[in-house]
Amino acid sequence: MPSSTPPASYASLPFKDIAVTHVPADSPTATKVLIVAFDRPQKFNAVNENLLNELETVYNLVDADPRVRAIVLTGNGKAFCAGADLEVGFAGLMAHKKSEEAMRSYRDQGGRVALAITRCSAPTIVALNGPAAGFGLTITLPATIRVAYSGAKIALPFSRRGLTLESCSAFFLPRLIGLSNAMHIATTGSAYLASDPLVSRLFSALLPTPQETVAHAVKLATDIAANTSPTSTKLMRDMLLYCPDTVEKTHVLDSRLFLDVLGGRDNMEGVKSFMEKRRPEFGGKVVVDGGVWPWWDVRTGEEGGREKAKI
Q: What residue ranges carry the coiled-coil annotation (predicted)?
């Protein structure tokens, strides 16, 4: 497995169950946009423990790599992701039930990936190019943008397998499609077309073919990587996700954050490039002048977790 140091080339990393491609694909070094694909097409990209480990690894690498500005997440073959590989099953998780202490300390591995996507400095654009079920759908929810092949079938079949929601999806799903629709699809466990009104709000665009879906996602990612400030996009993602619970508290927060970035490198470059009618050259790292970010409780329950910041 790769070290924690960003590699010269992501395409050369020894991953087994995911594939990472540069944009353009023939670039010998890391590019501003990466395509990360589930790569078990013979299994419809069903998830095993190694695939989850590899996903978490690549997101942690990208988070520390200022060269990468956006990730497109998709699946190789005909499916996006069929969910957990039921032929492997969940026997490995039973060890966590040996004691109450072990159960309290257990953290769902899909949730670890969801948090890695959420925390990553580079936004994720999902290209849902085919069927997605269970984890295959829940892992799309922390992404910044989702686009889908309109004919793709998606499902949360947990109620039909005697399981419950995972990968932090109970947090994201009602915020994205509303509580009523979230309750409906979670309770029925049925499959729906991506274009169905119950679930279509998940997607900012529905495309006529899988190929056009991936191409559209790459186009979005390329535009974001070339024209937006990593600091601005990360802060605004966090503002929307961790918004305070009243308009007055939100006013305090957005007032402070606006001042924190005002006059900063990216702000100055954004204004200058606009006036000079050229493409901006933003810095690659998220830089915040001031101590307000992060303003939410970022403790993980593990040793070394940071305390809640104060606004």
A: none
